[in-house]
Amino acid sequence: MTAARLGIIGDVHAEHDRLAVALNYLHDHGVDEILCTGDIVDGRGCPDSSVRLLQQADVTTVRGNHDRWLLQDKARHVPQAHFAENLAPETLDYLNELPMQAEVDTIDGTLLLCHGVADDDLRKVWPGTERMPAERSSLLDDIIRTGDIRYMINGHMHFRTIIHFESLTLINAGTLKGEHWPGFSILNLDEAEITAYEFREDGISMTKQQPIQEPHHTVWSDTQAFSGEWEPVRLF
Question: Helices in 130-201 by DSSP H: which ranges?
Fold first, then answer.
């Protein structure tokens, strides 16, 4: 199926309760497909429950660096770390089988889902602001150069934003974790807009709805063109 309405869920970090709410909401709002940027483990909740929810909802999911670290028994000093010996065998099988990246056919071209950039799950992309220097990626530049990918959805940075390139739009899906703008989004390619939602004490709140492209958005040729003087396009 060629997707027109996509549910976007960022890094899960075992937030199984929020994940369940997000999946139900996206299902009720009739999305064609739900995408998740991984990092299912390492958080305050239950990774086994999180994996079951993703499986039951048939979510297209990729592996994040925390998932990889758990499988490799690395970086288990991170806060709220999980350990392979405490997880169900079905959960470990699921994590082992997750791809690093996945392509999705949409009505507006091919979408690439990944955690960082393609197979590099630690790569960040950031045009640069006063508080944070630019993060460039030759791997993303190669992807842009091919012209084959129209959208890329990634996670890792926990900061829901849009970065515009001439031939590709990068959407960071954010995270379900923590108290700083946890939420999810719906990408509506029929209407060329994205709607962002957040978890609040009184439930889910729509926090932003905007066109994917607006005249005032900075558009880059590739990451080497990043100037370090960017006003982020926030999805919160």
Answer: 138-146
Exposed / middle / buried, residue 18 (Cβ in 10 Å: 0-12, 13-18, 19+):
buried
In 3D space, the residue among 174, 182, 235 whose CA is nearest the CA of residue 17 turns out to be 182
- The CATH class given to the 5-234 domain equals alpha beta
Residue 71 one-letter amino acid = L
- Residues 6 or more apart whose CB falls under 8 angstroms from that of 130 comprise 229
User: What whole-number distance in Å separates Cα of residue 88 and Cα of residue 35?
Assistant: 23
Helix axes 65-72, 89-97, angle to 10 degrees: 120
Distance between CA atoms of residues 5 and 177, nearest Å: 24
Q: Residue 201, Cβ neighbours under 10 Å: how many?
A: 5
User: The tokens 């958005």 sit on which residue?
Assistant: 217
Cα separation of 185 and 104, whole Å? 17
Q: How many CA atoms lie within 13 A of 205 on its CB side?
A: 10
Give the gyration radius of the chain's Cα atoms. 17
Q: What is the pLDDT of residues 104-163, one digit of tens each?
A: 999 999 999 999 999 999 999 999 999 999 999 999 999 999 999 999 999 999 999 999
Report phi then psi at 50, rounded to 5: -60, -45
Amino acid letter for position 139? L
Model confidence pLDDT, tens digit, residues 55-88: 999 999 999 999 999 999 999 999 999 999 999 9
| Rounded CA separation 46/39 (Å) | 13
- Amino acid occupying residue 178: G
Strand partners, 205: 198
